[in-house]
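Hi R.,

Here are the chain sequences for the assembly we discussed:
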Amino acid sequence: MSEAPLLQVDNLVTHYPVRRSLTGRLAREPRLQVHAVDGVSFSLARGEMLALVGESGCGKTSTAQTILRMVNSTAGTIRLNGTDITRLSQPQMRPLRRKLQMIYQDPYESLDPRFRVQDAVAEPMLVHGIGRSRAERRDLVISALERAGLAPAEQFLERYPHELSGGQRQRVTIAAALVLGPDLLLADEPVSMLDVSVRAGVLSLLDGLRRDGDMGILMITHDLSTAAHFADRIAVMYLGRIVEQGPARDVVRNPQHPYTRALLSVVPHRDPRQRSTPQILQGETPNPVDVPPGCRFHPRCPIAEDRCRREDPVLRPPAAAAAAGHEAACLLA
Amino acid sequence: MSLLEVEDLHVWFDLPQRSHHGGGQVHAAAGVSFALEAGERFGLVGESGCGKTTTILALMGLLPPNASLAGEVRVNGRNILAGGEDSVRAHRWTDIAMVFQGAMNALNPVKKIGWQIAEPMAFHGIAHGAAARRRAGELLEMVGIPAAAGERYPHEFSGGMRQRASIAMALACDPKILLADEPTTALDVMVQAQILDLLTRLSDELGLALVLVTHDLPVVAQVCERAAVMYAGEIVESGPMEELYHSPRHPYTRLLFAATPDLYGEDDVVSIPGTPPRLDRELAGCPFRPRCDSAFAPCMDERPVLLPVGAGHEAACHLTRQPAGEHQ
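And here is the predicted structure of the full complex:
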């Protein structure tokens, strides 16, 4: 029997109600819903890094928040190590949260300025009742800091966040996740607030953690170059759906969905000789309150045909993609 | 004579006496020089704290009161710093304009977009009333927004449209030079591409000289012909973008490119160890030496200066003075 994947998400749907004003309610305006996540399915194995990419508002952060059970899903299932966690109550979730840790975008905001490094890293253990004594917790803090690349850890224990650089701060938040021994890390734009010169170091750290630590990492990013470099697989989201997913190399070099192609064409290159003609999509992502019928990308799609306005495509292996696991949700692929 | 000439610009910030720094000064820009022709696009790149924003704020005369400055900024040969910082005011917006970092989030939420674009025209006596409103409409069209949208409020605009509106606002007084500080940093790639396309078009069509300040090397590589790399308040290398990428002469430039992932790049992305030096004390030797992978004896105590290393290409590195083949 094959082992269940670390994370298995099936047909996940998260809708948020739109608040109506008092007059709106009196006038019986229709109840509207934001279709933040609208049928997302993917799986993540141990030791694997999956990048969820897309523009703001495409639902990538809502997907992560739903997986973390910070918001409740409207439909679909989330399985962690084979256990369905979709409907667990918050007390039932609590022991599982150790296994499911989040790294936030901004280490300038996510660390309490009055907590020394040792306290910031020790706090999650107090919450989860790990470590019998102060000394034991101190040892765990030291080993987590060193795994996060802050060595020798003794030099950092007593410091406050303002004494650290952005890269070091982000490493502290990673250490605070590592003390709990997680199986799955969700990293939401983990380097976008950091200086260019240190980004690679933090990304390599995450890369090492999943390789050596047998952890699964779901990285949320809008930066396709970063995703191409560090992730094994890329899933491209548009308006609450994954429109293409597959091995990173194949998605980047042999994109099948017109949205992926457009997105890749506007990524700037380091080499000024590689100035390509960007295929600029006009306008911006439509409002997820009223999702277009048929293929949700058709109003902005350069190759849309008549049936794209009626048929809603599902993810399937496209004709022109050889790689296993490469799928696109396009009627014309 | 170039349209814009910046020569040996220095900016110091006084630190508060009672802070934990105990007074003293930060030398935020240390002898910055560059020149720009009409219609040219120039990038100013580097990590945060390298002095790129300080440099362009000095050009606008918008430094905070604890700043002091030295050097010359010439527009068409006239030194606009000659009468102290106040003399810059005559040139601000009419000769040199700026799109500030986060400008799209700094629009006045209770004023219509068109009014906000027309206001500086009245202030500078360029146009009033109906004429100003008409010109505001033209400016909006120029940045790709229908003129009628001037009747709308900022919250009715998307992020990309607000950034276009702030560019229109900067162009209200018909400047010759546009300084753009991280104009696409908070935007999505698709909107970023639209804004970069707009800036390129404006500099081509209006002959605007564009200074693009960003930490994002690929953005500069796509938009600018020339760029300067700043480190610790100094320009450490400047030259044609192609040369900076294909034959960098300062290790910092090479390492910055190596730290930047590329969509199709096959080589490992490596970060630069260490952090930039503190700028509140005199630096001995090369400021990049502690992080440099090719430092040698002279880097310890001799400060390198910018020297020509090719056509329009300069670098401040002792390695460039060595006969070819002796390093690497």
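The longest strand of chain B covers residues 25-36. Chain B touches chain A through 39 residues (CB under 8 Å).

Let me know if anything looks off.

Best,
T.
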